[in-house]
């Protein structure tokens, strides 16, 4: 069960409201790299967690923290919108500079939300829950989480560069820090479970008879006029420790030329196809 | 530039067409765990790759292979739909057993595609390109790719269990194998670049002054009535080797109680809010 | 800031797992009438609340409760999926009755989530955050909330009828009850602020000069071969107490016939349009 | 059956074409607060109306009016786009001021529609029909309609403030007026059916035995460090007149700690979860 | 301006209600081949029509007819749902046959709409207005319209085969007929404007200097191991009468190998990319 | 099976990077008129092609070419983004002119992709695969393809006008040329199969008894106050050569007034509806 306390997890200060930066910040709320996504992803993973219950607790604890991140980011968006003129009659709106800024803000911050945060990204596209990755496989889920935190920290770092407001920089340095912790804690689960080598290939529970292992360890070079790019993936032991990497240069197709023959009568095709 | 040769990458055989399994297979084409996603994800990552060009080649080579996976899966869907009755007058349609099967097929395989594959998932929801994760950060992208292949292999393993058609099992064992290779090759890139410890936290190029590092290594226990779940993430060296993990039990909010005050005149609020 | 405690807000018991009912329950999680929607709607309204801060608290308190509803519903979905066969080899899967049930379950519960809840509706369509209605106008928002709870209670009542599992009926009777409270509490806010008459028309802050009030109180009968349906809306005092309702039968258009003239050169039109 | 007459419902005049305002106006066409939504919502409610047929007629009559609103708004968008330069060679395009305006217009008005209205919102996001709320419950639907008109009028009022074009202000004052009527007419249906008290809780047809009424009238205070915000919802008679409101401070969870145990073999989980 | 008259454009009769067929019929309402799409497509094309005003009238007249098609299809869906049991207690619901049918119906017809039509397709996916194709180019739009009617008639023909209800077959034979007329009327516009040869390539107003015409008339054979499929497109006069078709076998890329070099500092990339 | 060679199909040169033009170019990648759409549409049509296999080859060959178009357009987007400042500290960002440009760029090019192409349109809306039209009817599909290429060429022509960069104009003149070929090649298939008259109405395989042919050749004039717009569609032989066009002026509805009666008990409606 969830509870709420009155203060924000972290202090939010905006020295100079900037409606255009409010638009950018939306990416951290409603973007695929944002906080709604991780909050919901960890929440749904927790609800579907099977195995040791402590992972369920871990997921739920961090889902709860991410909800608090949405909360202070939402406040930051609203504070950045404080200065925006709401009518063309206002003096500010007559200033061409302000006009230029307004040209760059999200018009729905004015028209739809009344100067407040929305669950949308920096293009105004609403967040869509298909981005909640939760497979029931703990290793796949941990990778998805580390990935989400990695891209989230990339975003936070770019937002940090996109403002020179001291308050905003302070808040973003906190977000960058928490994303540091979170991406590590998910990889820590993988280490605790035995490490990447033992976890891979995900899922590590596939019976050997279900896999055509003769195809499991070669890099397929589909490049016609180049040799395969050489690297860790072309030779040496595979990451799961079970085989050696190799390369299949200029691969030949192994299947048939597909053909479906004529269309059935009454299938809605043209007569000429039947 | 892309080219095409006539035969499928791998042979597709369907011993007993099964329209319901055709619906399930769609998840491997148009689902978030499916082949359109990885093909497009690697393609867009390749187009945005900066740094050593060999990673661009690696991404493009595998993007190209994934296009070939879409191709043979699409053929498998069509072959599974071969037997489906297209009119209620057909004998097959009068058979209650067949009817039950039809009740479980995707009706748009009949109504919209004329017994062929569609770029949708097992619920008939079209694939949406927001799932193409490409950040311009090679470590974030490699994690996204390993994650995609991990969840793809989980899916392929489940599809393998959901059919007893020998031809389909054979094709899926090939997919399982290629997903094994692909998830490893992306992690191999990370190893080649110095390994996870050196890569993390992603991005590893954030200047230290941009991060409130006092918040970077503690697990925040937002659980009111439990201690933090203990594990690799609560003590010991952090995964990036820079600090020690710790726990913040029963965290106090560090921010203010947010308040936005009264609404501006002409902002579309009620009089009572102004 | 958010916190979490270990137990569910309400006990969840499933006497007979039913994967088909799990699919139906998803509507209460990820449907437009569901709990993700209200949780997020109240949360975003709270973050944008201007005026008396107690309404912000009210919204946040209930947003927090709705998160707990997602949690127990998610558990209910997982429990209903416990019995589902995961391979066609299992005995259960060979039973034609079970097969019929499986034909009616959401295949992604098997393929994607590993027998757990997802943030999707009963058709498997992911929830999309455009359904978070938050305008910054407290009366519009309260109406949106009462509406959401009304349609949520309609859904809960229908789900109650769709199962005869005692545990599920018990849980749903709790949901029905909370939806009773919630729809009333939002209307109570309107009453506290002065009542519907004083609140309407929303927003009640539009200067009179901005409204063509000669068009504000007639019902426009666009029906060619019928008189206007008579009722409370065709005569008597208007709901805002400012005028009398009337009817405009067989309305004549008041505008011009629209015409855009020829297309501009270089605008991408055909020559014949220029 | 529908019919059309040549003139617009209301005259549209644009004194000074403004491509940026064309972008804003799109919210009134293809936004969730816009006219496509209400037209389609009333249309689908009408088609599903059960009970007294006059409500079907009422809904269809107003659906028809809303189609006419789309029509004149669409014309207004096109007229606002008349001045936009279509090539960078045009003089206008060289003017930095014009350039600034262009930076703020929707580029798809130029690229995709050829200077005409589109069924998208002010961010260019296409309208999606999931926003057509139609439950088959007349009270829920009337609330949804009053809500839609309330948020529509908030939008129209904000658009009025965002332009100083006399023609546009005149058209918007008409829209504001019609939204006044429409929100009232839907509440008038509720009054005619017996009033809010009799209608609530929606649906008012739930048998008492289906509701855990001991949970129907308390406000749940999930706020850890504050008392419940006091108001009309914490004491006094409930809005449905059936009970007294109360408060549950510091609520204890009533359910179990959820646990799903180990994962099934062959379910796609990791070995460590089984 | 729009108007409405009470009777349906065409009589709707359902002899044997069939909830599963109601699901299929939804494709004709909310599918991409359905009536909402054409109604809205012609409406938006009409609003953006430039050139001879009679094409605007033609489009608006048919948009209006398509609205009437939605109306009678919506009624057909509701009539097919009449028999569906709404509680598991009803006798019908205990019949395994009925159960099988229910397994195949759209559960949201029960849960969300209360046994009425919805603006969704046969998978329950809501219609999304991005499918309204309206370019401002009359030839492109007429092609889009003929295409929409062609795929609409394919759908109607398949639906005709999917039912043996006499009433439904009668209604669908009317839809098939109107789709016949509509696809022809849009091609008739092209003929009237001079015919396909004169209209093509669309847009026919591109200045010759804007086109690299040396690339305008060859078929590019990207097939590695096959000659180009021969046909009308490989030799003989082009369809626009301006040149001869030819084939480019085994095409060589004409561009450079793309490379973006190193990543910029502060761009969020890894150090190793800079 | 697919293959890749290193060089781009066509050379890409950007003389003056322009982040705002990068945003516009996205429409040609991820817009409904763009290259992802045609690549995927031809690919899925190929996979579902029934009848003469050469059409499958034709479709696959061109699908493959379109993938190469995505590739060079993606490179063009990245090159246009080269100059964009990534931090507000950079000199460029302090220049008000640059600022104005930045206000018009897609912020996610900075925040999400790290200065690279994305699978989104000019509004930042991700491409969604529902736009892949593939019906299994070759004539419907060829019309869809010609339409897609027609609207694609309209777009390319508009993009040509929207830049004065010589390199970009050169690349776009190539795209315009290929769109010329492609729209013609699809119409050539129709001609080869017998021409439009023989192909229409699509599908040409509907048994006559399935069509109410008395409704197949009249134009329905739903305009109340105007005669039908006269043209090729109101008289003369129909396009399929089977009948004469006529007009139905002032059409009377032929159906009943729809009414659904009272709501069923337990259906979630209000008591007053039952």
A few lines on this structure:
With 274 residues, chain A is mainly alpha-helical. Helices cover 46% and strands 4% of the residues of chain A.
Describe this structure in words.
Chains A, B, C, D, E, F: Pfam families: Mn_catalase. Chains A, B, C, D, E, F: Belongs to the manganese catalase family. The structure is a homohexamer of 274-residue chains. Chain A is mainly alpha-helical and 274 residues long. Chain A folds into 2 domains: 179 residues, Ferritin, core subunit, four-helix bundle (Ferritin, Up-down Bundle); 47 residues. Chain A is built from 9 helices and 3 strands, in the order βαααααααααββ. The first copy, chain A, has a two-stranded parallel sheet. In chain A, helix 1 packs antiparallel against helix 7 and helix 7 packs antiparallel against helix 8. The interface between A and B is large, with 117 and 117 residues. Strand 1 of chain B pairs antiparallel with strand 1 of chain F.
Mean pLDDT of chain A: 94
CATH topology of the largest domain in chain A: Ferritin
Radius of gyration of chain A: 25 Å
Helix content of chain A: 40-55%
The H-level CATH homologous superfamily of the largest domain in chain A, spelled out, is Ferritin, core subunit, four-helix bundle
Keywords (chains A, B, C, D, E, F): Calcium, Manganese, Metal-binding
Family (chains A, B, C, D, E, F): Belongs to the manganese catalase family.
Cofactor (chains A, B, C, D, E, F): Ca(2+); Mn(2+)
Protein name (chains A, B, C, D, E, F): Catalase
């Amino acid at each position: 069960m969830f509870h709420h306390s009155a203060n924000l997890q972290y202090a939010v200060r905006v020295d100079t409201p900037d409606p255009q930066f409010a638009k950018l910040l939306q990416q951290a709320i409603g973007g695929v790299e944002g906080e709604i996504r991780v909050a919901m992803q960890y929440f749904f993973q927790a609800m579907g967690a099977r195995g040791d219950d402590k992972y369920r607790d871990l997921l739920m604890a961090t889902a709860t923290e991410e909800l608090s991140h949405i909360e202070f980011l939402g406040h930051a968006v609203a504070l950045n919108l404080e200065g925006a003129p709401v009518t063309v009659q206002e003096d500010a709106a007559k200033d061409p500079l302000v006009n230029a800024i307004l040209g760059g803000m999200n018009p729905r911050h004015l028209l739809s939300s009344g100067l407040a945060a929305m669950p949308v990204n920096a293009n105004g596209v609403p967040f869509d829950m298909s981005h909640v990755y939760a497979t029931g496989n703990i290793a796949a889920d941990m990778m998805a989480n580390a990935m989400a935190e990695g891209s989230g920290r990339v975003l936070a770092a770019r937002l940090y560069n996109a403002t020179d407001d001291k308050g905003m920089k302070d808040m973003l340095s906190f977000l960058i820090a928490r994303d540091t912790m979170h991406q590590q804690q998910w990889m820590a689960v993988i280490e605790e479970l035995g490490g990447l080598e033992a976890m891979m290939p995900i899922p590590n529970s596939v019976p050997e008879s279900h896999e055509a292992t003769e195809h499991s360890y070669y890099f397929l070079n589909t490049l016609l006029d180049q040799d395969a790019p050489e690297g860790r993936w072309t030779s040496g032991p595979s990451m799961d420790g079970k085989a050696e990497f190799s390369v299949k240069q200029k691969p030949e197709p192994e299947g048939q030329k597909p053909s479906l023959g004529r269309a059935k009568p009454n299938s809605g095709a043209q007569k000429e196809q039947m």
